[in-house]
Amino acid sequence: MENQEVKELELSQEKLESKIQSSWQRAGKKLVETALQLFFSFRDSETPNWAKAVILGALGYFITPVDAIPDFAPMLGFSDDLAMMLSALAVVAIHVKEEHRQKARDIASKIFRS
Q1: CB-based contact 62:27 (threshold 8 Å)
Q2: What is the pLDDT at residue 70?
Q3: Which burial class, exposed, middle or buried, applies to 72 when counting CB atoms under 10 A from its CB (0-12, 13-18, 19+)?
Q4: In the chain, how many domains are there?
């Protein structure tokens, strides 16, 4: 992806927050924390565009209501979302800083009160 294309595909914090708020209890702490790590990495100006494109794909899949496994399906609903995000996290792991992980842990702990 060209630099300009990645900049134009701006990940909306509001869309991510809305998805987390509507699904956090069913999604689970691991999924929420992973989504937040990816989000903070995406917003970091030091993250290269190729990594942002990978993150955008994974978080876009999470945010959109159309999934391989519907989110409302008991037990399995978010398994495809988590698999997508964990795969993206593995690919871009070198660009996920400790500060991204810490922010994600802090927010997920507040959401799940643990």
Answers
A1: no
A2: 66
A3: exposed
A4: 1
